[in-house]
Amino acid sequence: MDQTFITILGFVAAFFTTFALLPQGLRAIKTKHTKDLSLPMIIMMEVGIILWLVYGIIIADMPLIFANGIGTIFATINLIMKLRYG
Amino acid sequence: MDQTFITILGFVAAFFTTFALLPQGLRAIKTKHTKDLSLPMIIMMEVGIILWLVYGIIIADMPLIFANGIGTIFATINLIMKLRYG
To answer: Smallest Cβ distance to B33: which of A36, A55, A59?
Structure first.
C-alpha cells in the first residue's frame, strides 16, 4: 500500500483521538456539570497521555510529542472541571 | 536508555489510554445517565480508535491491533449508552 496514504491515515487517527477530549472539556466549561463523567476515566486518560508524551520524548518522535502534548492540555482541562464540579 | 524499559513504558501508556473508556462505559451502564457526556467526544474517539485499528492492520503492528481492537469495543459501549440515554 502507498506509504503516503498510510502516514496520512496515522495522522488522521491521531487527530481524532487527540482532539476528542476538546469538545468534552468545552461542554464541561459551558454546562458547569460533570456528574456523568467518570473520574477514573479522566485520570487514566491523563496518566496514559502523559506516559505517551514521555515515551515520545524518549524515542524523539515528533508526532507522538505533538499529539500528546496537546492531549495533555485537553485532559488536564477535563480533570480540573471534574474536580471542580464533581 | 534501556530498550526494555522503553517498550514497557509504551505498553503501560497504551494500557491506560485503551482502558480509560471502560470505567466511563460501566458508569453509564450503572447510572443510565449520560447527559454530561459530549457526543462529539465519543464519536471522535470511536472514529479515531477504528482508524488506529485499520492503521495497525495495514502496518501489521500487533500492539496497535490489540489495543485498538479492545478500545473499539469500549468506545462502542459508550456510544450505545449515549445514544440510548441522551
So the answer is: A36
Q: ipTM score here?
A: 0.91
Closest Cα partner for B67 from B8, B2, B27, B17?
Answer: B17
Q: For residues B25 and A20, what is the distance between their CA atoms, to the nearest angstrom?
A: 16
Tell me the domain boundaries of chain A: 36-86
Which residue out of A41, A57, A61, A68 would a mutagenesis test of the B interface target, given it has the greatest number of B Cβ atoms within 10 Å?
A: A41
To the question of domain A36-86 being in CATH 3.30.1050.10, the answer is: no
pLDDT in tens, B12-42: 999 999 999 999 999 999 999 999 999 999 9
